[in-house]
Amino acid sequence: MNNKKKLIKETVKKHIPQRHLSSIRIMYRIAMETVYGIKRTGLLNIAIVAAMAAILTIFGSLFRTSFSLSSFVDKLGDTFEISVYLKPNVDPVYMSSRIRELEHVKRITIITKEQAWEEMNKDIDVSGMENPLPDTLHVTVDDPSNIAIVCDEIKKVSGIEEMSYAQDIAKKLQTFTNVFNTVTVFVLIAVAILTIIIINCTIQLVIQSRKEEIEIMRLMGVSNWYIKIPLILQGAIYGFSGAIISLIPLNTIQNALFKLHNFLVIPPSEFAMNIVVFSLFVIAVFFSAGGSLLSIKKHLQV
Question: What average pLDDT does the segment 58-67 reach?
Fold first, then answer.
């Protein structure tokens, strides 16, 4: 049986070019060195991955919530209409065409004074009275933050009697959105810093535990990258593992947000979770590997 296995190995080796065989051996040794480094870290691996998962969960939760908040703001923004009241004898169709040319104008609904009067008659009996209502244009903008800009532009158009919109609500909504997005950015920065600190401390311990072994490899003329890559991969594995664990609480948050969207009858962002998961893994692996590289440069002169 052993002879048969040996024969198979020799046959396989013959069909693999020598340069490729050498590369495979190097990759195998690098992989084994990475595993060896993780084993040396021992139970500390659990604490490292748990800490990574916690900070990634916080970032992922805020990032995913920001997508839902954006959907809510967009939907709510459609209700923030500028009511434009026209002067007598001004053609509402002509005025609508002029305002539609303005930047940030998304939609215009014409409410003639006859339509408004008819609607009022349904609620209040005003028969016999002359219609005092003006022709009205309901202007919807592309983003609530642009309401004030559009208002200023509309004021320059002649034939406008008066305008009104929920200015305070629009400002508060925009302020809340800006604050939430700013918090998300700061959390991302905190995630980067904490990840680098955690990985830096971990790799430092690994380097100290293997200091003599690394010195021997250097004296033997081993390539610097052969020493560096297992440590960088070790950091990347911590980040990857933390990202995988963080998906469990993120899935719970995703389900809760879906229920909220259904309750408010607001369609959720189609690719929100995919973007969050992709970003989470990229950030986790990139910052973890980067933290390892910084630690190597700081604590190991290779």
Answer: 86
